[in-house]
Design a protein that fits this description.
Chain lengths: 463, 103
Amino acid sequence: MKYLKPGVAKTASVEMTVKPAGETYVLALTFAKNGSVISQPYEREFVGTGNPQLVGVEVTTPSVEDDYHTFVDLYLKTSLGDVPVYQTVQQWVSWDVLRICAVADSYAALDPEVYFDDGELPVHAFMQGTKHKLTVEFTNPTTQRLSFYVAGYPQMQVGIGNQDPFNAWGFFYVNAGARIKKELNFYASEAIGTPGPLVLKISPMGQEGLEIIIVETTPVEIINNPTPLSGTIEFVPSKTSVKQGEAFDIDIKITNTSNRLGAFPLYVMMFDKDNEWIRGIISSGYGVGPGETITAYTYIASVLYTENGINPFGYPPIGNLYIRGKFSQKDTVWRGEKTITVVSGTAPAATATVSGAAWYMPEWWWHLKGSISSSFVGVLPNGDKPYYNIYLLSYYDPGRTEYCGLNLIWGEPLNKADGAVQFDCDLGNSSQDGRYTKIVILEQGADWSIRGLKVVNGPTRPS
Amino acid sequence: MYVFSPNAAKTGALTVKALPAGQNCEVELFLGVNETTKAVTTGKMAFVSSGEFQIVEFNMMMPATYGLYNVYIDVYMAGVKVAGWIATDQVLIPEASFGGITW
């Protein structure tokens, strides 16, 4: 792309070869926008040599800042008039965009440097999954703020399955007159081959589609990395022995012991003493650089206190609690496991009463309306200000441990330790005709972990 | 010599006289650097001889490439070539190629 100031006199040198030689030709140059000529023709007579020659044409650049193409018409002068060598519909068009802008001189002074830090590897040849650095360095000579970004391949691999060969590395900004040296880390792709170049594009801020400088590196080659991927998963709990009703945290750490990027899904699950699956903890993608250790996730866990063995959410009984995880894709599997012991504990101190509850059956379903007053005395596991949801569980029989339904009757967290809520809920039309109802007050964290439980008896459902 | 633009569409008329009258005739006009290499041609255009000079109109696309071309006219009667001429004026097709613009 060429940058010129608006409304200035310039000489355009057109390189051409015309035949026959020795004849007089007329070259006419015009500026065009969207395929239409917008300027007068600027003409120049010359004698053709039959060989490549430069013909200068004096023009005045368009006065409006915009992008233009240049049309060239050529005529052979004869005694009978000018004969078009290129007719109007067959004009030769210079596909180089001519950008007319007031700061053209400043743009022309932009001379960005783009280079890789390749270490001992040949330039622009990266081993699969290895970490590299790209540096972009230039001074903004203009009077406006510029943005730039790098796109291309290999892309910065931080996600899973991100094989898009043209992944922009965000926008960076350079103030007028400032010099920037930006270092960008990236990982080579796992895909062997020569996918293409990295491209730097610089634009006026806010006009990112108006690219004034484009720099392309030579195509990047990805070569085979003979080193297999290797690594570990480690679980670091805040406690290895917890009481029922007690909270604990687990840091899930991934260490990459190989020299290539490990970017896979991480799966972590919890099992009880009988190796029965309890719940999934996380299923998400992570990227771990060569030799790096990351804390992928911190799981805030709790061991739910259960009353009379009633455990509506399947939380673990006393005994071993197993945290197991794997970070894997295809043939690569990094595993980890940690055992936590659950010992007997006491329920969080809390009181709750149900008052004013009334059953009624307006049509064909059971309906319960009333209020719950709760009072927690601040001894819940983590000591934080708790958030509570109020649930209602109805049971077939007080002596049985299973429940027939879980009805959320207050969807919004109370956001306070003590208080009362009104509830008004449908219980469905179960023909089981529950005889017994309990109100369950749960603390619910952002990850839906349940840290506290208080079970209070509700009114007996009439038969 | 005529000078025409490359690929220019031209319309012309040639005057031809064929005897005897009342015969099914054809005339072909073509451009070439020699008689055996036809750069462009009108193809055979049919007419019935009147025994007098008569006009046959034709359309022709000029050659695309540079050269000085002869103009040939052949006349056929009952499928047999009976006459051939070379026009005194040649056709010049100029040519240009562009390498770019330097500002």
